[in-house]
Automatic annotation (TrEMBL):
Full protein name: Interferon-induced transmembrane protein 3
Name of the encoding gene: IFITM3_2
InterPro entries linked to this entry: CD225/Dispanin_fam (IPR007593), IFITM_antiviral_protein (IPR051517)
Superkingdom field: Eukaryota
Keywords: Membrane, Transmembrane, Transmembrane helix
Location(s) in or outside the cell: Membrane
Amino acid sequence: MLKEEHEVDVLGVPHNPAPPTSTMIHIGRETSMPNHVIWSLFNTLFVNSCHLGFIVFIYSVKSRDRKMVGDLTRAQAYASTAKCLNIWALILGIIMTILLSINQESSRPGALPMTCFPHTLPSIPHPAHELSPVLALYPHIVSYNGIQ
């Protein structure tokens, strides 16, 4: 007789007559609800028109926190608000960038007027020999009462 068979003979049958029980654990699906934190962080750092990006970031963090706690209804509401405000922040940021670039282009000395078809080209008002050295280096300085 082998040693393994001998050990089985010594141990015998199990003493518990009840059938073995099993436990089943149900793991819920991970709900993929976007909280828009990355988009909000981008709007906060780069766009942030009227501090709207910061407000959106707060809503995104609230959405993430509610999702972690398990309050999916409130998390969805915060995520929806964050998405809507992210869209508005991005649109306002693009509009402000365009308006500022147009304003900077038109305020440049010697820039063309803002009409589509100018009848006459603007003349350059000051020749190089009439410019003071300060005004030549810094043309955006405005003269107040004759003092530059």
